[in-house]
Amino acid sequence: MKKLIIFLCTGNTCRSPMAAALFESGLTAEEREQYEVRSFGLAAFGGEPASDHAIETMEEHGIDIAGHRSTPLNRYALAEAELVVCMTEAHSRVLLQVGVEPEKLIVFDIPDPYKGTLEDYRRCAEKIKTELKKVYDRIRK
Questions:
Q1: At what angle do helices 52-60 and 118-140 cross, to 10 degrees?
Q2: Which of 59, 97, 54 shows the shortest CA–CA distance to 78?
Q3: Which among 16, 49, 94, 98 has the fewest CB atoms less than 10 Å away?
């Protein structure tokens, strides 16, 4: 059974889908056999598409997220997760309050580009790529 890695943001239309897609694109074939990568939002409405700028930014990285639909975080996914990658400290605090073990969490510091410019999304993607080193280091140690 694959180990689940969750990327978590607020609405699941910008940061976490981009982070999950960028992370998955950097996995080796062997790692893809070992890990399932999903994204969720703490306050997501289910079924929303990724934002246009998120889709365009990922296209610039050769990644297609046009089929992404937002998913609210649920307790089943949380219980299954090997790792939960939070886009901000605030997201991790919510999870700690509901009893998620601190060692399951990795925290990024990614400002929300929602309703920003395409350039804001590009900057966001670059910051995500830098922060992803924490996740690769954790799974490859």
A1: 60
A2: 97
A3: 98
What's the CA gap between 121 and 67, in Å, rounded? Answer: 18
pTM passes above 0.85: yes
Burial tier of 129 (Cβ tally within 10 Å: 0-12, 13-18, 19+): middle
Active-site residue set: 9, 15, 112
Average pLDDT over residues 102-113: 98
Residue reference for tokens 């990644």: 63
Read off the pLDDT of residues 131-140 as tens digits, 9 standing for 90 and up.
999 999 999 9
Q: What is the pLDDT of residue 110?
A: 98
Range of the domain at 19: 3-140
Based on the structure, what is the number of domains in the chain?
Answer: 1
Provide the strand spans (E) within the chain: 3-9, 35-41, 81-86, 105-107
